[in-house]
Amino acid sequence: MQTTFPQLLLNHAAQRPQAPAMREKEYGIWQAMSWADLALLVEQVACGLHQAGLRAGQHMIVVGANRPRLYATMLAAQSLGAVPIPLYQDAAALECVYPINDAEVCFAFAEDQEQVDKLLEIREQCPQLAHIFFDDPRGLRNYDEPGLASVDELVAAGKAFASLHPDFFKDAVAQVKPTDVGAMFFTSGTTGNPKGVVHTHDSLLNRARAGADFDHLTNAEEVLAYMPVAWIGQNIFSYSQWLACGYVVNCPESAATVTIDLKEVGPTYYFAPPRVFEGLLTSVMIRMEDAGALKRRMFHYFMSVAQRVGPQKTDGKALSLVDGLLYALGNLFVYGPLRNNLGMSRVRVAYTAGEAIGPDLFTFYRSIGINLKQLYGSTETAVFVCLQPDHEARADTVGVPCAGVEIKVADNGEILVKSPGLLKEYYKNPAATAEVLTADGWYHTSDAGFLDAHGHLKIIDRVKDVGRIKGGSNDGAMFAPKYVENKLKFFQHIKEVVAYGDGRDQVCVMINIDFDAVGNWAERRNLPYAGYTDLAQKNEVYQLIKECVEKVNADLSADALLAGSQVSRFLVLHKELDADDGELTRTNKVRRGFIAEKYSALIDALYNGKTTQFIETQVKFEDGRTGSVSATLKIDDAKTFAPVKAAA
Asked: Which one of 51, 314, 498, 625 has the fewest CB atoms closer than 10 angstroms to its CB?
């Protein structure tokens, strides 16, 4: 059944008018908004936008955190046949210029003073940006800018218009077709300017329903919406599936309260990239290290039980009487309280996506009874391509093709996808569209992988990143940087890794320590430090990281395919990789090529056998100022292991 986002809103408002659609936490109190109230707000905003001049086919950016009024504005734009474009709220002002100009945006929704200031700063470069509507008025009382108005004013104008034209909104919604453009998402632009990915109402809702049917989602689910709306993963889970299923979306008070809000909401359906799961686990491990000796021993004992039998339990397999009893005790004393502390005591289905998750991290969550699964997709595929069925979740696959999806593997190992959820086009970029979409409807994912004997898809790395070691004892061995990086990032003391080795005689990595985890580790050992740069270069920290690297090497040596990817040399960077410095995308993916250019002196030192290297790096602060960080970095060797030969 084809339909549109605003039509689904009206359906829920008619069928379940008083049921909660959204909750928002303000001043520590959760406030609910019903479907009827939301529909009324959307009507008023839509009428206000129409009066302001927004018409079908035009674009409107929305920038801010997950908030009911932001969602209402997206729905209002869609009700008029216009196209919402969510942008990242933490993007620098200059990063917004290209999307706004490329899409010829005249209308903007800005959450608060920070976002308004950002848009006003670039207004001279975006002269067509005539209307900016803000939600939170704090700090904006004395602003006097043409076209700047509050959402309250927009709602008041819309309310007056609706009273004079009572049928306008429903008539406008009726004119919107499923094949019309529903939203546009800009890619992170790792190689050049971002591209606008154009999706129809149908492509987004088709995939939302496919995912909902796969996991038997109902309107009883509870979801916490805390990731950026501009990331299509968050958008699908808290917007498209929200409207397809009619469940409740909860908006946290702020980024700082997400952990607390997660515990209060107790979501039943949870979605986060691996980085979030890594952060949650790191915080748990830090607290356990500060616990008493008895608690630590109990935790480690029962976690060893969980690691051994937990995944079988979560997969629905029978345990022996002894293992069942031990796991039940572990659940009482450790796993249950741990799930509650993580805010996941009610989670029925949890997904991770965006990048590969470390197998040990994946197994940890499943071992304590959380049904964590992986999915595979992208902005261009409206997320849902492959999903892991319950009881078939494995760390080394991303699941089976879901309803409507076909997959084939090209001769070079690239995954090709055919799906109802494919992008319509890249906006105003037919050449880029032709590069990824074949005439017969296959989408080039740029990911290398294969379907295993059970029909599960395995992703190795990006096609362009999979390389070969040249020279040395591992000449010709496969090198998959992401795989190596993810194995290292499982360790709580390591936050980010950048691996190099393609076309070289060995693998070398640059590492970011996790400042909180390593700082806590250092304090318990009475190891003084003046800040990140100082801590990162401590001999004791290097020894700690070296142990992690060598454990990964030992694991890699047991993998016949990737034994040659063992890390020979490493260094710990003097600063954290940052999206504001261009080193990460806004979705926190490493920009490996950019980093290679920026830190070429460090890479040369790694491969030239140096033991130290001076580096000075320019950094950008949150207030827009620039400065520099310099240090003499140590470079260390890591022990590598002979490949383990498989038994005959």
From this structure: 625
Q: Which of 166, 200, 171 is nearest to 4 (CA)?
A: 200
Instruction: Chunk the chain into consecutive blocks of 10 residues (it has 648) and report each block's average pLDDT, rounded to whole numbers.
Output: 92 98 94 98 98 97 96 98 96 94 97 96 96 96 95 97 97 98 87 89 97 97 95 94 98 91 95 87 83 90 93 89 95 94 94 80 92 95 96 89 95 92 97 95 92 87 85 84 86 92 94 94 94 95 97 88 90 93 84 92 96 92 81 95 68
Buried (b) or exposed (e) across 388-405, using 16+ Cβ within 10 A? beeeebbbebbbbbbeeb
**Cβ(366)–Cβ(389) below 8 Å:** no
Check if the beta carbon of residue 33 is closer than 8 Å to that of residue 23: yes
Q: Which of 550, 568, 598, 560 is nearest to 505 (CA)?
A: 568
**Alpha-helix runs per DSSP H in 176-320:** 201-214, 232-235, 241-245, 258-265, 274-290, 293-314
Residue 478 belongs to domain spanning: 467-637
For residue 277, what are its two tokens?
């799961």
Distance (Å, whole) CA 481 – CA 486: 9
Is residue 14 a part of any domain in this protein? yes
Handedness of CA 465, 466, 467, 469 (dihedral sign): positive
- The tally of domains found in the chain comes to 3
Write the CB contacts of 6 (distance below 8 Å, at least 6 apart in sequence): 42, 75, 78, 79, 173, 176
Q: Based on C-alpha coordinates, what's the Rg of the chain?
A: 25
Q: Does 648 fall in a domain?
A: no
219 and 287 fall within a common domain: no
CA angle 347, 348, 349 (to 5 degrees): 95
